[in-house]
Amino acid sequence: MTTTPARRLTRKGEQTRARIVEAAADLMFVRGVAGTTLDHVRAEAGVSSSQIYHYFSDKDALVRAVVAFQNDAIVGQHERSFATLDSVPALRAWRDQIVAHQERMQCQGGCPIAALGSELGELDLDAREGVAIGFHRWQAAIRHGFEAMQSRGTLPAEVDVETLATATLAALQGGLLLCQMHRSTAPLAAALDTMLDHVESLAQ
Amino acid sequence: MTTTPARRLTRKGEQTRARIVEAAADLMFVRGVAGTTLDHVRAEAGVSSSQIYHYFSDKDALVRAVVAFQNDAIVGQHERSFATLDSVPALRAWRDQIVAHQERMQCQGGCPIAALGSELGELDLDAREGVAIGFHRWQAAIRHGFEAMQSRGTLPAEVDVETLATATLAALQGGLLLCQMHRSTAPLAAALDTMLDHVESLAQ
After folding, report:
1. What tens digit of pLDDT does each residue of A89-103 get?
2. A59, A98, A194, B73: which is deepest, by most CB within 10 A?
3. Domain edges within chain B
4. At the fourth CATH level, which superfamily is domain B11-202?
5. What digits encode the pLDDT tens for the residues B26-39?
6. Is the ipTM of this complex over 0.95?
7. What does the record give as the DNA-binding region (chains A, B) (predicted)?
8. How far apart are CA A167 and CA A176, in angstroms?
9. Given an 8 Å threshold on Cβ–Cβ distance, is B166 in contact with A172?
C-alpha cells in the first residue's frame, strides 16, 4: 500500500480532490467499502480515472482519505456544535440532536466512522488506525466538557472523567448500532438517557 | 433471494450442514462477508460445491444461516452461562468474562453478530433482521436478570428495566467496537464498569 506524497494543490486541485473524497465517502456509507469501486467514484464525482489516480495511488489511499474526511465531518461537527458540552442540559441537547438526526436518516447507516471501522478493522491496518484516531478525538471532545464540569465543581473531583467520557462514547456507538439494526431510535435514546442519568447522578 | 425449503436431514446431513455453516462463520468473522466466497467455504469445510448447494441455494441463504448460528453461539452462550444475571456481583463476573475473552482474542474482530450487522445492515434486509433478532434476544436475557432483581426488591419498582437492559447491551456493543478499534480492553472495561456502577447506584 503506497501513499501519493503530499504536495501543494492549486485551489482547483483541492476542490477536485475534495469532490472525489466526498463522493467516495457517500458511496462507501451507502454501499460499503467492498461494494464501492473506483469506477463508481469516478462516475459519482464526475471526474476521469486519471484524475482519481492523480490524487490517489489506489483505492486504499482513497479509503484513508475517506476515514479522515468522516473524522473531520462528524467529530468536527461535534466539536463545532458542542464546544461547551459542560453541563447536564448541554448533554441532553446533544442527545436530542443525535436522536433527531437518526430520525431524519430513518435509522439507516449507523455512524459512518463506525461503519468504516467495522468493515475494515481486521482488513486494513491504516483504516483501523484512522478510525481509532477519530474515536480518540471524539472521546477527548466529550471529556473536555466533563473536565469543565469538574473544574466548576459540578462534577466531584474524584470522578474519573476519562472513564466517563469513554463510557459516553461507547453508549453512543452501541446505541447507534442498535438503532440501525432495529430501525428505531428507541435503543439509542435508552443508551444515551441512561448514560446521562448516570452523569446527572454524579453531578452535585 | 430464495431459500432452500426446510427439510428433514439425516444425522450425517445435519453434521455436514453444520460444518459448512461453522466454516462460513469463521471465514466471515476473519475476512468479512464480502471477502468470503463459497469457494473459500468449500475449501475450509472440506466439502464439494454440490454439497454446499444441496443445503444452501446461494450465498445469501448461507449468510442467513451464519447469522442464526452466531446468535445461538453468542447469545446462547450468554443464556447458558448467565441464566441468573440477577445481582451486581453476577453482573461484575459477566463483565470480567467478556473482558477476559477480548484479552484472549487480542481485541480482534469485535462482536461477530455486530460485525455481520454492520457489514450487511444496509445491503441485506434478511441479515439485518436476523441480527436484530439476536440483539433482541440478548437484551431479553439481560432484562430477565434485572427483572429478577426487581422482584426480589434489589432494584426499585420504578426502575425501567427495559431501558436499563437496552443501555447495558449498548454499553457492551459500543465498548466492543472501541476495544476492537483501539486494540485495548480499557474502553470495554470503562463502558461496562460505568454501566454496572449505574446499576449498583440504583440497587438498594
Report:
1. 999 999 999 999 999
2. A194
3. 11-202
4. Tetracycline Repressor, domain 2 (1.10.357.10)
5. 999 999 999 999 99
6. no
7. 37-56
8. 14
9. no
